[in-house]
Design goal:
Elements lengths: L24 H4 L2 H14 L13 E10 L4 E11 H7 L1 H9 L5 H12 L3 H19 L4 E3 L17
Length: about 160
């Protein structure tokens, strides 16, 4: 049940299957190594968001490939994201933060619409498809394959498989 985002969406919702939560490079690396890696990613993106181009505080977002047949989540690389693009990517967490009064969810949705040049209906359709895919993927146990910092996808994954 793999779903590819429509070609015209630059910013998409990327919900991590529940059985993969906290399986990531940030959790696997010592803090100083993660800090070195994320600073390199920011430099690689010219200290701008890799999706909307915003400057300011950035987040290092891990990009994943999901093999829905084998149930393997594989780290493909990293992208520098502004806070708002990161909130869209992790919309489930954003919804929880909004429910706790810690985030303006309307602003998250507005950012999605602005970056993609779309209307609320497009957002709603994309959100519904992302949630449907997340529910299906979350029904299965997944194996997570991480690559060490600086390695190309496929190199030395066995060292970091979770």
């Amino acid at each position: 049940m793999p779903a590819n985002p429509p070609e015209n969406l630059r910013l998409t919702i990327e919900l991590v299957p529940e059985t993969c939560w906290y399986s990531n490079m940030r959790s696997a690396l010592p803090r100083d190594e993660w800090d070195r890696l994320r600073r390199q990613v920011y430099a690689d993106y010219g200290h701008r968001c890799g999706i909307c181009g915003a400057r300011g505080k950035l987040h290092c977002h891990e990009r994943w490939h999901y093999d829905d047949a084998a149930h393997v989540q594989t780290l493909q690389g990293y992208i520098a994201l502004c806070a708002w693009c990161h909130h869209v990517n992790h919309i489930g967490l954003s919804e929880l933060l909004a429910a706790q009064g810690q985030l303006d969810f309307a602003r998250v949705v507005a950012h999605f619409q602005r970056v993609n040049g779309c209307d609320r209906t497009t957002y709603e359709r994309h959100h519904a498809a992302a949630v449907k895919l997340w529910r299906e993927r979350s029904r299965h146990p997944w194996r997570t394959e991480l690559a060490p910092p600086g390695a190309l996808p496929g190199e030395a994954k066995e060292e970091y498989s979770l």
